[in-house]
Here is the input.
Amino acid sequence: MNSYTSSLLVCMLFTICTYAQMPQAIPHDDLIASIPGLDQMPTFNMHSGFLTAGRDPKKVFYWLNEATEWDNKILLVWLNGGPGCSSLQGLFQENGPFTFNEETEKLEPNPFSWNRFAHTLYLEVPFNTGFSHFADDRVTNSTDHNVASNLLKTLENLMEEHPRYRTYDIFLAGQSYAGIYIPTLAVRITELNSTLAANFKGIILGNPYLSEYLNEKTRATFAYTHGYLGDELYTFLQKYDCYNKTATASYDDYMKKQCDGKINEVGRTLFNQPMNPYNIEKQCWRTKASDIENQLAALLANYNTGGEVSHDEGGVEDQFANYFANYGMEKESEATPQAGNESEEQFANLLANYGEDENEATTQASNDSEDQSANLLADYETETAEETEPTTSSEQFSLNVTSCEDHSAGLEKFLSRVDVQTAIHAGDRGAWKMCSDKVFYSHHKRYTDMTGRIRKLVKQHKKSVLLYFGDLDLACNVYGGREFVRGLGFKASTDNEPFLIEYEGNESLGGFVQQYENLLTFAVVKGAGHSAPTDKPAECYSLVSKWILQHTK
Here is the structure.
């Protein structure tokens, strides 16, 4: 039994531990006194409210939980991805002290909460995500760069508001597109001589988006090895390295179109199916629609997949163009309707506007993009319907697709309640959304690969890094993670070893871990998807808690 084996019996005593007497900090205005839906308040303190990011108008919502068991002075900062998805998802659905029960609409103790081994801080970024906002409610475009900059200022403000944490070891953690935020922030902390630098120890990333190229390339490999792609398609992609933009730049127009066509075929195969790309073993249902309508639904879902799929030039924009170009053909009309030409141009303009501005200037165009897209689709469908054969009732146009990952309706309703917002010092912010489409569409993805930053953190700054991947995630898959680590060029310091979990005298495989340079750990969580702490809470608790203990003073 190796160092990653843990006892789950102790975890099941969480409720007793949580409500035991805990040392109390000096009362703060943001101290949570009660929460609707929570029958009994824990004895550990929770704070929530707004921090500032440098200038007073920038209001970043935070939720801070004191540690329940180990007084080892560790602060773990958690971010979700998107861009534009709230970190309260992590708080209430992944690794926080309470999980939200969608049926009872109550908060229930989480026996595998990470605040059992660290003080945990959840931040909603970028601005206009969740409760975070500008005091004057302006709407701005975010960038990878300014998100990291604002996070640094926010953490510095935390130390002013809660000075006890100035001496705590700091770990930055998150998942998905936080794979861009966190390494960027970590380098800023270490190289800008921040007040946080002395206590900053390392980063933890779950199913992170680390490399656009590797993520897309290995998604095809993941799909092929699971039997989702045929031999001919996969062999072509590998032979001509179609996902490598450097390689395809030298191809003639014919080969470029061949590669683009094959890549689009992969997208249609994977995202035009009632399948959950965030956990391929979860059953997924959607309203039945005709083939061409499902293709459009898949393209829309592909464009709005929370940051895990590329939306750069030559990707989904071309798929929209191809869709409209082929719409009339697939409906067996004599020619593509004129409406399609106009719609194609309008879609191109809308998509081209997403994320263009790197500055924090207000862009009304991006604010209205969703409404324009919805109206455009409605107009296009209406205009083309007159020129195509009528459909039967079972084939009528429908985008009423049941999301495989739509487990947030109850939580959104709960956090939108005035009494809840008042209790957690959020003010009256109106409807709270798990993810903001407006933030996602307008965010400028400045960085597409984190190899240099991860390598610098380990080799130059000697910081610890944990990369863990649920092996059922298609969006940010384990193959891409393994290939990313291989590309770092680090020397393995251990073999690929199993880690086990134990319960009442029995043990089970939790996954595998391998260390590099004694500082970087690559881990696979067996049976988990994109949100590994949700799917496999015991395994993730075991993995992360023991890793942190190994990398603290």
